[in-house]
Structure formats: C-alpha cells, structure tokens
Design a protein that fits this description.
Elements lengths: L4 H18 L7 H19 L21 H7 L3 H19 L3 H12 L4 H8 L3 H21 L1
C-alpha cells in the first residue's frame, strides 16, 4: 500500500484515539504513553509496508512543506491530558445532573441551559424568589458533594 503524508497523519490520529481508550491513569504519564503508542504504530506500518519499499517516518512532514512534523505536533499538544480529564469531569457532571429529581433537573436545566432567570423561574412556578434561591443552592450543593465523592 502506498501511504502519503495525509494517510500517515490519519494513522497517527487513530493510534492516538486508541491510546486514549486504553490509557490507564495509574500507570504512566499520558503524553509519554501516547507518544510511544503512536511511534510503535508508525513502526508497525513501516514494517508491514516494507515490501513496497516506501520510506515512512514519524518525522514525516505533516503540512507537505517540511515545516511541521508529527513529533512536533505531539510535543506541542501539552494540554491533551488536561483536556481529557476535563472531558471526564463534564461527562461525570452530565450523569449527576441527569439523575436529579425531575423538579431539580428542571430548575438547573432552565436556569443554566435555557438562561432563565431565577425570578422568571419563581414566577413560572408561583413560588417566592427566596425559596427558589435556596432550592438552587441546595441542588448545587448536592451536585458538588457527588462530584467530590467520585
């Protein structure tokens, strides 16, 4: 098979996605794990492609002009691990919110996702504003506790 630079970048991205799926946070740093995984996939691709006598390299140019190679892209992306952890927290928060009682979910959804003011929500429910504020604070405390436990 004849791989061009775009194909190699795609192979690298697939290796990165697989590394994210298989990464164990207790064993090693994310950046070194993904770097090694991608390097090994590139070496495997080169070995399996050897019969075609193509030269494949993890240092191959990404942009076609030689100004940026794949290792520079990996090294420049320091926030991958942080972004992954933020994503996990967001998923966890979504699960907690989806497990709220229906009236709690409605309050959080309308106020934070539909930009309802607490005053509008209180008048919609025919409840005093102060009661809605206390309810909102209690729900946020409940969410905070669940986030800290996990």
């Amino acid at each position: 098979m004849n791989y061009d630079e775009y194909d190699l970048v795609q192979i690298g991205y697939i290796a990165l996605i697989n590394a994210v799926d298989k990464y164990d946070i207790t064993k090693h740093s994310f950046s070194s794990y993904t770097y090694t995984t991608i390097k090994n996939v590139m070496k495997y691709t080169a070995r399996s492609n050897n019969k075609h006598k193509l030269t494949l390299s993890i240092n191959a140019s990404i942009d076609g002009q030689g100004s940026l190679d794949f290792t520079e892209l990996l090294e420049s992306n320091d926030n991958v691990e942080i972004d992954y952890l933020k994503h996990e927290k967001i998923v966890e928060l979504q699960k907690i919110i989806s497990n709220l009682e229906p009236d709690e979910f409605e309050l959080i959804f309308l106020v934070y996702y539909n930009n309802f003011s607490l005053k509008d929500y209180a008048s919609k429910k025919n409840l005093p504003y102060s009661q809605i504020v206390r309810k909102k604070n209690a729900i946020l405390d409940k969410i905070r506790v669940q986030l800290l436990v996990k």
